[in-house]
Design brief:
Elements lengths: L6 H19 L3 H17 L11 H11 L3 E4 L4 H10 L7 E4 L4 H10 L8 E4 L2 E4 L3 H6 L6
Length: 146
């Protein structure tokens, strides 16, 4: 995993730790604990940990061609990607996720679909890219739940 994906989560934890230290030294351990919890949660949500395991773009395209499941091109820290991931809930595991910061072919595919921009999430269904689609539409593209 690239270190770039972890910069924001690490900065959130460090900033939270500094603030917590100040609150603790001022005699507010309860506020410090609550503050640290908020920063750790923000770091977790902005980390690659909340996303299903990423695969390479070429492998995702091969699998999608075989079973018709959508491909989601994303990057850590993208609020739109996080929102899509959270709103898909458990069904998110039915899609193929490609982290464009880890996969140059994925980044190239996104640039090709978005006039040279790395705009994510870009969801590819049946070979057609859709930039920042509605969560409901993405759910409709999934196979029925077992």
């Amino acid at each position: 995993m690239t270190t770039r994906a972890w910069i924001l989560p690490v900065l959130l934890v460090l900033c939270g730790s500094i603030a917590v230290t100040g609150l603790t030294l001022e005699g507010s351990p309860g506020a410090a604990a609550a503050f640290l919890l908020v920063f750790v949660l923000l770091a977790g949500v902005n980390s690659p940990l909340i996303f299903p395991r990423s695969i390479g773009a070429l492998e995702a395209q091969r699998r999608s061609a075989a079973d018709g499941r959508p491909i989601v091109f994303w990057r850590p820290g993208c609020k739109f990607c996080i929102r899509l991931r959270i709103r898909l809930g458990r069904r998110a595991g039915q899609l193929y996720w490609v982290d464009i910061w880890r996969d140059p072919a994925g980044a190239a595919a996104v640039r090709a679909a978005n006039d040279g921009n790395e705009t994510v999430p870009t969801v590819v269904v049946a070979g057609r890219p859709h930039t920042n689609p509605d969560r409901g539409w993405v759910r409709e593209q999934l196979p029925p739940s077992a």
